[in-house]
Structures are given as C-alpha cells and as structure tokens.
Amino acid sequence: MNTKRVGQILKESREERKLSVKDVAKETNIAAKYIIALETEDYSQFPAETFALGFLKNYASYLKLDTAMLLNLYRGEQIEESQAPLEELTKPTMSSFSLDRNRFVTMLSIALVAVAAYILYISFEDSGASLEDETANVTETEDTSSTEIPSGINFVSQSVPENASVPFILTEDRGVSFSVNNQQCKMFVRGVQNGKANIGFNIFPEKNVYFFQTAEGEETLLSYRIQELSSLRRDIRVVTQAVTEKSAKVLVTLREEREGVVSKPVGDVPIQVTLFFSKPSYVEFVIDGQMGERGLVSAGEVKHLEARDRLEMKVGDGGAVEMVQNGKERAVLGKPGKLVKKIFVRKQNPYDSTQSIIGELGE
C-alpha cells in the first residue's frame, strides 16, 4: 500500500529527474511559488481549489505521473485532514487503566445513577410510546404539506430538452434546478420512509413547495391542473427509477403545454450547454450568479447546463471535454491539461430590440 502523500510524490519525482523548481516553472508556465506549495501541500497559497487542482494535474502530467491517482489521493488527504480535529478530540488520553479509590467511588456513583435512570425509563415507557405514535402522525402529515425550500441544499442546473427524458439524482443536500418554458423549477428529496421518497417541487419565484411521495417504478404527473401548481406552464412527467435510504433517481420528461401560454419568441432562449467528458476533470459552474456543481467529474459523464442570463464555466482540463452550446457544432473545449474558463451571456439582438441572443464574453 502506498503511504506517500501528494507533495512527497511530486518532489521525489522531480528530484529523480534532476530538475529544479526553476526548471519546472519554465517548462510548465506554473509560478515557482505554486510548485513549492504543491510539494509542501500548502494549498492556502492558491486563490481557489480550482487552481490547486488545475496546477496539480498539469504538474503531474509534466512529470508523467498517474494524474487520476494523484487527484484521488489529494481528495482523500483533504477528507482525512477535515476529520483530524474530530479524531483528536475523541482520542483517549488515559495512559493507564489503574483506578485509585476516588475513581472507584466515582464510577460506582455513575453506575447507581444509570440504574435509577433505567428504572424511570421503564416506568414511563407506556406513556412514551403513545407520545411517539402521536409524533409519527404529525410527521406523516408534515411530509405532504407545503413549506419553504430547506436551507443548505445545493442545486445543480440541468436542461430538459423537448422530446427527451433526463435522469435526476436527488438527495437531501443536492437538488436539481431546471427550466420549463422559461420558468425556473427546483426538485429535491426531503427524507425517505418505508421505501418512499418525499420529493419537493418548487416554481420560482414562489416560496411554497409542493411535496409528493413516490416509490420505485411509480409515475407522477406534475400538472398545472393541481391547485398548488396552478402557475406551472406545462405538465411534467416524473418516473421514479430507484429509491435508497437518502436519495432517489427520477426520470423527468416535459409533457402537455398549458393552453394560452404564449410561446417565447425566436432568439429568446436560455443559455444551454452540454459537456461530454472523455477524461476526468475538475469543474466549477456558476449559473445566473448562483454556484452550481463544483468538483471532479469522471470520464464518460455528460453534463447539461442551462442559465437564463449568465453561465460561467471553469474546466481543469480543456482537452478532456467537448462542448455543444445552443445547438452549435460539437467541439473540444480547449488545450489538453490547460484550465479553460468560458462565460456565456444573454445580449440584446442589435437587429431586433424585441429579441435577445446568446454570446460569449471575449468574442
């Protein structure tokens, strides 16, 4: 088992090739201070984790190391360090198990208190059971009521094209935001009980959430004919493919459009981007000013992004990703191993003030 850390692997590999930090900086165009930061694992030197991962990938490629292994090792080290304070707090500090007389008296007192507490628990068990039943009934009622979106949920933006079904992975801390006829909708999970997921659905800018329960294999139709969803512009078909203890996988399809809804004018379409990953790469998405997905994407994955006015993307390895933007020809995003940043915005059509077009900053 390899017990070496990321910094040690990088430094030893550089020294084996008899390269100085200055040599590496010149060949890779990475500042010397960042090379030293990677080898010493001083990641506070980087303005954001995006840069640390991008430079780590470039440096590893230059040294002909296994970049995927190093990125996974880096992730593991970050998780271990985040857990270290808890481990230190819970680590036993006693060096000996010998007990003197005072300790014996103390432990005996604790044991007596525990026995007394247990007797009290037994005596009130019946009343406690009835209270639990009452609480359970209240909880079941709350699962179907409307409330605001819980705080702490990270919403990832996805697009649902016409005549296509798109899978959503929903958890209690990660939901999906998508557009329906230029109407922003959000979907997430609020608990799973007895094999049924309690899924929340919100229509922006409304604050209330419509909840429905669904099990694997069941189909739900979110329709504007439902009183709580009267503002919805078209029906949405939701088929539940899988339910686990804390998540659900659903297949979402756009259905019947509401009568009387005025179609959006040609050109007044959302910003739509689809990314195809041939290799693992770090990404960061900002959608209409809100942070979207951020992290490492595996090879073979496809990401559908949609924004109304502004979409910002950062990709750690431009050569590992191909992009389709608003129906344009599929093309490689950038050079292999290079960090790529793209910003798409909605602009007014210079030839028709009633319509808008999608443009890229810098074009």
UniProtKB/TrEMBL annotation:
Pfam families: HTH_25 (PF13413), RodZ_C (PF13464). Residues 10-70 form the HTH cro/C1-type domain. It comes from the Bacteria. Keywords: Membrane, Transmembrane, Transmembrane helix. The keyword Nucleus does not apply. The keyword Iron does not apply. The chain crosses the membrane at residues 104-124. This is Transcriptional regulator. It comes from Leptospira ryugenii.
